[in-house]
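ASSEMBLY PREDICTION REQUEST
Request ID: AP-0331
Submitted by: J.K., bench scientist
Number of chains: four
Total residues: 446
Priority: normal
Notes: Please return the full assembly, not individual chains.
Input sequences:
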Amino acid sequence: MIQKLQIQFDIDPELYSKNPDSSKLGRKIISNSISMINEMGFEDFTFKKLGLAINSPESSIYRYFVNKHMLLIYLTSWYWTWTEYRLAFATTNVASPLDRLDSAIDLLTQPVLIDDDISYVNEIMLSKIIFSESIKAYHTKDVDEENKKGCFKAYKSVVNRVGAIVLEINPDFKYPHMLISTVIEGAHQQKYFSEHLPELTDLTNEQNAITKFYKELVFSYLK
Amino acid sequence: MIQKLQIQFDIDPELYSKNPDSSKLGRKIISNSISMINEMGFEDFTFKKLGLAINSPESSIYRYFVNKHMLLIYLTSWYWTWTEYRLAFATTNVASPLDRLDSAIDLLTQPVLIDDDISYVNEIMLSKIIFSESIKAYHTKDVDEENKKGCFKAYKSVVNRVGAIVLEINPDFKYPHMLISTVIEGAHQQKYFSEHLPELTDLTNEQNAITKFYKELVFSYLK
DNA sequence: GCAAATATACTAGTATTACTATCGTTTATG
DNA sequence: CATAAACGATAGTAATACTAGTATATTTGC
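STATUS: Completed
Returned structure:
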């Protein structure tokens, strides 16, 4: 029998009170919160509703995360840790940095379409959450504190890794991090705009217009 | 005696319950909310606190705005209406579309530094709010409804106007709105990152790195 | 296989937020 | 100067975001 390899990440213990990966309830919290946030949006999602859905009291969920905001940070960290793994996989053994950057932009600007993991984390839904809600993870009054605790380490690491490819292509380039964070955040926003404020984008019939736009933008700048 | 011209905008009546510009209390609500949101951030700002600050009961503020979110939308609309006016002023009688786009990017990527209006709206503080909090005006579960009501008309109009300059430079360009909304939102975010998550940017000693970055990005793409 | 530790369930309760309602008084305006 | 509109004062509600305490399972270590 073929056993699919289950990806295991060590998420920084600062991000939770009790490791959700260490118990049945914890895993239920993660998988159900992903589908619930996806359905109703982060604002309408509450620990009370989650508790109802998994038949556990609110107070039990608080043992894992001090609040729903830390849960969102946990989910985003999981996503970026996983994405760095995907990036490494997609770019090793590719000699040309231009090709590697091209693959990286594909990964960063498109939501996940297939869930090839068999864990309790649905990666398609998680990536949707990242595209539509991740900005709420760091755009709050507590950013500085949370940043000190390392809440955004995984995201910064991804930006760094792709920024390094940019520097391989053009070692004198002054703004590698700005460029990559503009692409990532821009792609998330353009996707959101296309669904809710289409006048701020340019919807066409072509597939992957957002990816195409950011590739042209990046490569014309780097040449 | 020289009387400075006071700029008057008609803000869409859909955005308020009672026009704050029509009464003393209304103007106090606007000017005090701008300084309070600036000081404590939008999340910590409440109508109760505002009421205390201006010595009026919460319930009186609700007569002007159904909630604090609509007040934020009012403020952003005011800003974008004013910015379109500034754009028009900065670009009329400039023949070259390249020069006009250059001026437009200056306006869109830099916070306001001088308040030359003598009204109850402090434009320096308002522009700071736009840079740091405006994303919260449209990144909510109620976007679609609010969009239908016209809450984001002023913003879309600015994106359109600058997008039109892009098309003058390159009539075949496919993504004028994407490009401009990327610049605007990107500049806001990079400013925020530089203050809270500097690893996502490239802070240098140079002045106006963000403006420089987006100008290079845009003009290299359009050529 | 059983005691000790740990995890979870159940219930209750608090502070704050985001409103809504009512009514009396002040202020503007024709 | 009457009358409508605006504002102030007070009270109250539902929901959210927690915290506390105690009872009951479940795991684990010997």
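REVIEWER COMMENTS: Confidence is low (pLDDT under 50) at residues 1-5 of chain A.
SIGN-OFF: pending second reviewer
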